[in-house]
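Below is one such protein, fold included:
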Amino acid sequence: MEYLDIVDEQGNRTGEVLDRKTAHDLNKLHWEITIFVVNGKGQILLEKRSMNKRYSPGKWAPLAGHVDSGEEIDDAALREAKEELGLGLQSTDLVVMEKGLLRKCEEDSRISRYYYTICEKGADSFVIQQGELSGVRWFDIDEVIKMAQSDDNPTSIHADRVYLLERLKKI
């Protein structure tokens, strides 16, 4: 069972620890990480989320995951990259884009640290986490921006986070 540290709006641990399902059921704030995997062709790698996921099933999403109880945020990013895509990254491979963006909503409230990393592997070279993902694909960043801003958004990227994708175009 996966346990999460509950945090306040500044991202500080409150001392409360809950299993992931309960934290989500109670809509408690917790840390998550997102890593934008980009290449030199102006593309971003998105994962096709499994249909059995609680949030955004079947949608295209960047690499993301929870920070386990007691785990450092940067360590969680490295762990998630290895688990989901088979990427053996070092902390020097990750560039922090946003240290802690708060998202409070009716469900799935969280604080997220956003990173990017550069990777030139072909989509078929990733070792994806079965059960979590059904595939990966490189997309042009402009295409992802259009998808995120569309009414029938096929991604998990919210329109208010498009500015992060705009910043990736300048890398």
In short: The chain has four helices and nine strands. The mean pLDDT is 94.
